[in-house]
Inverse folding.
């Protein structure tokens, strides 16, 4: 009885705005999905955003727009960590959403998604302005693929785009810091000792062969003799990862110039690409895997780059799941666990790669 009372109490504590903005499990409330041309993001749009997420749901505007059913926080409030509910610097917000880095959003062809001919908005009430026709078509396809009930997990591109517009463009610093954290404890820098476990070491070599060298050269523009610190075996990993005078932060003691070059590259990315990079790094627990995926997506005009195969979403999944797949080979697959992890990893990696590719190359060549 007490448990039932707690459940009812919890439900009662959810604000009406939060309940209306929830998406998971909501019945499909639209019939037709389409795309339409739209204006580029401008500072006046961000200036109109209210910072109060507990206010009443936004009413239909004169422009016949569709308020987003997706909440910025889990419960529609500011309780979610790192959620931005207001835009402090509106001019920088619009500049960060410019994928061409020329401070002229009007040079990009912008599109949005429509639900029953009403333009969709983000959780903060900002226009869902997308800088690429293929990206808009893909987001529209996600909405159209929803059947009776809406499933947010089946809309990864919509999630990434809303994150870029509402969160990353507003304040990219927390995401930049988080990406750099993955460099300090990069999964691809911890290798099995070949004398102790040659099979796992062979799997790692197959997945990560040339990763550090090529990325240091192509992205970080470093000499061939400078690369990341690598730990071999458990004992080596513990010793190298400890804080020391030369390594004030816990993590691998990478060369300072490599860390500086990585920071410069991450800080140079627009909000769309940074969002894709952050998602890929979070899924793989690796700066190098995430950066390689996003770099190759941004430069995917040719099938091969520098004499090597392009690192796409499939490659990223294999590189991110080396240890997990090795354990599955040894101990078997747990249904409802390992298979879901595989699927989620594939969804996130392919979505991040697609976002970076379509933003870097807004149109496809026939």
């Amino acid at each position: 009885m007490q448990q039932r009372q707690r459940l009812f109490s919890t439900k009662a504590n959810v604000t009406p705005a939060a309940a209306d903005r929830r998406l998971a499990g909501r019945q499909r409330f639209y019939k037709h999905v389409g795309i339409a041309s739209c204006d580029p993001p401008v500072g006046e749009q961000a200036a109109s955003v209210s910072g109060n997420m507990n206010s009443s749901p936004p009413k239909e505007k004169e422009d016949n727009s569709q308020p987003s059913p997706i909440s910025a926080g889990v419960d529609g409030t500011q309780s979610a960590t790192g959620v931005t509910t207001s835009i402090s610097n509106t001019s920088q917000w619009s500049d960060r959403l410019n994928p061409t880095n020329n401070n002229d959003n009007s040079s990009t062809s912008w599109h949005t998604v429509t639900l029953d001919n009403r333009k969709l908005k983000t959780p903060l009430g900002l226009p869902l302005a997308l800088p690429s026709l293929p990206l808009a078509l893909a987001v529209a396809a996600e909405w159209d693929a929803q059947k009776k009930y809406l499933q947010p997990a089946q809309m990864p591109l919509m999630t990434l785009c809303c994150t870029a517009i509402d969160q990353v463009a507003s304040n990219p610093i927390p995401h930049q810091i988080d990406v750099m954290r993955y460099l300090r404890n990069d999964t691809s820098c911890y290798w099995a000792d070949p004398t102790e476990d040659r099979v796992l070491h062979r799997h790692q070599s197959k997945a990560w062969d040339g990763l550090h060298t090529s990325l240091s050269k192509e992205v970080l523009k470093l000499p061939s003799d400078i690369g990341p610190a690598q730990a071999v075996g458990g004992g080596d990993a513990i010793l190298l990862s400890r804080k020391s005078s030369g390594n004030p932060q816990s993590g691998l003691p990478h060369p300072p110039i490599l860390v500086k070059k990585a920071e410069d590259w991450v800080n140079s990315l627009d909000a769309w690409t940074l969002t894709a990079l952050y998602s890929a790094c979070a899924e793989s627990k690796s700066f190098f895997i995430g950066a390689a995926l996003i770099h190759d997506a941004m430069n995917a005009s040719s099938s091969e780059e520098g004499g090597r195969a392009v690192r796409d979403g499939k490659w990223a999944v294999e590189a991110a799941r080396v240890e997990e797949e090795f354990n599955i080979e040894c101990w078997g697959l747990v249904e409802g666990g390992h298979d879901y992890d595989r699927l989620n990893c594939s969804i996130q990696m392919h979505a991040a790669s697609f976002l970076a590719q379509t933003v870097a190359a807004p149109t496809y060549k026939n």
About this structure: Confidence is low (pLDDT under 50) at residues 1-21, 50-62, 71-81. The first strand starts at residue 33 and ends at 37.
